[in-house]
Request: fold
Amino acid sequence: MSFNPVRSTRKYLMSSLKDSPWFYRVSFLEKSFIRCVLQIQSWMDGSYFYWIMKPKEGFRSQFGQDFVFQELGIARTPGFFVEVGCNHPEIESNTFILEKVFGWTGIAIDPLDYSSDFRTLRVKTTFINCLVLNELKKVEFFKVSNVDGWQNRMSSIFESELKNSKFLYEKVEVDSVPLRLLIPVGQKVDLMLLDVEGAEIDVLDSLNWDLQSPIHILVENTGRHESRRKINRYLKGRGYRLLARIGFSDQLWKIS
Reply:
């Protein structure tokens, strides 16, 4: 297949590149073109751009998110984080280094039960086993069987994500709880991290913005279910500016 920059740009804007099989099939030239598009966008809006396609040595994040926290000075002073969609407490974790190296504490939330792992590996982090949405209710959740140790991370509230995949999954009911009920009253939030596969706006709406506005927000913004433009407008409307792009789909915001 020949390189077509228009097609490449369209696929970037409309696909979840990081999680899509398409991303791993495209040519080096196409990936390089997308990288240039992101770099130009960052130059235009005055944000940083980090292209890190594997964990930095000594760090844990899949695409260097924890390394970026250090580089931008966010991690250096101990703070408090709220991580929604945390996954495993160490493997490809965005907050493991924050706790272990920089002395942070925080809350990690996931509908998959990692409570025993957090008790062993992350004693300064409070793990909460639930889904985060803007309503207190029971929600259908499609839990993927963990055949090789990683598949369960593809679990979703959207069955459409899994119907045409090779993943084995089951439908279960989980509790959804708004963030305003999970974050302690009066707690300053230095960093909030969202990896919620399309529920970004619902999760953000579940905050008490008058009392709980985070200083920094990291959003995995794939555009698969919620458009990037919509999330960007939402955060700008709340007074945030884009601080950095990390790889294809992560955006780091800071309150103005």
User: Anything to note?
Assistant: The chain has ten helices and ten strands. The first strand starts at residue 48 and ends at 50. Confidence is low (pLDDT under 50) at residues 1-25.
